[in-house]
């Protein structure tokens, strides 16, 4: 099977005055000259053997990154993972792609499992944690680090490699930044992988794959957007799968780089002069449609966006404040986009060593516990439904607060009771945001929540207060 781990790299220098950043003129992304250009301390620019993608700029050529990122010696002879998950890694490539502001480092490799025994969802997650935390070392680094966490150092290495060394001023670290990594795994049924805990499926008929799952993992403190793409039917055209892979990679990079640009703008590092504001506005005009339109470049991506959406309200501090610092025209675009994205409540499987846990990101609150699939989905869907509902703001906020309180309650209950509580929450939320809430239904659900809260002394008062706050707004 094949794994591709990518680190998004946002190069903000095109949004800054050229004379201030002293950026080297070559390679000129997204149209470098293959076999002539090179990235210092990394490698030569080469053409992609199968060509690029008509829909995406910057996919025709890449810079070899073998010098930038070093892997363990004799890696093919070392086992990765334990017991049934023990595997061998081979055919490794390291590449850097760039389309201007949006770039990425890719590490791709073939993985062969030693056992044919199927892996459970938990074992699959543990196996991915082992393959993505390979020790790597960057050029001139003395000590290795997990591959999953190399993004920040790769960004700074690229900044230094692409800056004129004769420039009077030193480059500033924020000019080039790394986003959250992503992992794409392409496998067959015979490889024995299972959908990850709390994974969501994408309708395969609409995206050119037989089975496509997405899940959020958190490995050693690093969040990882993870796609598992299964291909068993030889009738599926290889070029369609390739197109899907490129689209998934670019969609993630575009979204992460957009987040990093917005962070810099909200910190008043970008868009502070008229020329910079115009450059930023042009970038948003190009970027926002890419990550919001239902169909992009022939791929129906509405489900891709839905299942992979990030928790923007934690990534962008002060998102509830006005966006006046960005300028009115830019601010309106940003505000609309972030408010649409705030409805996301990702369920994240956390892996620390051999221990696994579940996090649910509910706005600015993270609730960690041993939630089963049904409980986690009910809590997640309740929060998303409340956040995205067309109801008065006080009711919306009361429902979101109730969801966080019920999540805290559920993690302290036995699995079957936690599941029942989550169902009561789902019913109450659905009735509360409906056009004509049915009092007998939401009263019954509210009673179930109150009764469950009484069994956990420390949660009785918070849950009772939250339930009463919602009921008061439904009268």
Q: In a few lines, what is going on in this structure?
A:
With 475 residues, the protein is of the alpha+beta class. Helices cover 39% and strands 23% of the residues. The strands form 3 sheets. The chain has a 15-stranded mixed beta sheet that branches. Strands 5-9-10 form a 3-stranded antiparallel beta sheet, covered by helices on one side. It has a two-stranded antiparallel ribbon with strand order 16-17.
List its traits.
globular, 15-stranded mixed beta sheet, three-stranded antiparallel beta sheet, 23% strand, single chain, 13 helices, 475 residues, alpha+beta
Molecular structure report:
Strand 16 and strand 17 form a beta hairpin. The strands form three sheets. The chain has a 15-stranded mixed sheet that branches. The chain has a three-stranded antiparallel sheet with strand order 5-9-10, covered by helices on one side. It folds into two domains: 254 residues, no CATH class; 105 residues, no CATH class. Helix 10 runs antiparallel to helix 11, helix 11 packs antiparallel against helix 12 and helix 12 runs antiparallel to helix 13. Helix content is 39%, strand content 23%. About 4% of the residues have low confidence. By secondary structure, the protein is of the alpha+beta class.
């Amino acid at each position: 099977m094949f794994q591709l781990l990518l680190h998004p790299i946002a190069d903000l220098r095109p949004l800054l005055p050229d004379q201030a950043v002293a950026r080297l003129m070559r390679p000129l992304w997204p149209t470098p000259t293959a076999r002539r250009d090179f990235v210092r301390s990394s490698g030569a620019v080469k053409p992609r053997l199968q060509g690029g993608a008509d829909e995406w700029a910057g996919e025709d050529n890449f810079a070899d990154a073998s010098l930038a990122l070093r892997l363990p010696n004799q890696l093919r002879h070392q086992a990765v993972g334990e017991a049934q998950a023990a595997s061998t890694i081979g055919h490794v490539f390291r590449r850097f792609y760039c389309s201007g502001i949006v770039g990425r480092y890719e590490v791709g490799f073939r993985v062969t499992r030693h056992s044919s025994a199927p892996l459970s969802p938990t074992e699959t997650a543990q196996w991915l944690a082992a393959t993505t935390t390979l020790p790597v070392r960057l050029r001139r680094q003395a000590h290795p680090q997990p591959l999953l966490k190399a993004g920040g150092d790769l960004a700074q290495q690229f900044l230094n490699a692409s800056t004129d060394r004769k420039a009077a001023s030193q480059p500033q670290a924020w000019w080039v930044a790394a986003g959250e990594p992503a992992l794409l795994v392409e496998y067959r049924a015979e490889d024995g992988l299972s959908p990850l805990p709390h994974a969501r499926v994408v309708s395969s008929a609409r995206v050119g794959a037989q089975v496509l799952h997405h899940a959020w993992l958190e490995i050693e403190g690093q969040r990882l957007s993870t796609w598992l793409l299964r291909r068993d039917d030889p009738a599926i055209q290889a070029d369609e799968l390739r197109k899907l892979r490129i689209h998934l990679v670019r969609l993630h990079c575009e979204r992460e780089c957009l987040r990093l640009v917005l962070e810099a703008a909200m910190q008043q590092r970008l868009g502070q002069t008229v020329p910079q504001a115009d450059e930023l506005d042009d970038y948003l005009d190009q970027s926002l449609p890419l990550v919001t339109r239902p169909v992009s470049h022939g791929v129906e991506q509405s489900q891709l966006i839905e299942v992979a959406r990030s928790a923007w309200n934690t990534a962008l501090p002060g998102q509830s404040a006005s966006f006046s610092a960005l300028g009115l025209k830019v601010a309106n675009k940003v505000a609309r986009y972030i408010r649409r994205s705030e409805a996301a409540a990702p369920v994240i499987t956390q892996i620390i060593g051999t221990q696994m846990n579940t996090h649910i990101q509910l706005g600015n609150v993270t609730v960690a516990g041993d939630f089963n699939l049904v409980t986690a989905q009910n809590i997640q869907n309740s929060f998303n439904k409340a956040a995205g509902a067309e109801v008065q703001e006080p009711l919306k906020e009361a429902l979101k607060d109730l969801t966080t309180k019920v999540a805290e309650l559920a993690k302290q209950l036995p699995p079957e009771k936690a599941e029942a509580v989550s169902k009561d929450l789902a019913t109450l939320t659905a009735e509360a945001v409906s056009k004509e809430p049915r009092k007998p239904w939401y009263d019954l659900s509210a009673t179930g929540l109150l009764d469950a809260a009484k069994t956990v002394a420390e949660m009785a008062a918070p849950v009772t207060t939250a339930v009463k706050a919602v009921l008061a707004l439904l009268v």
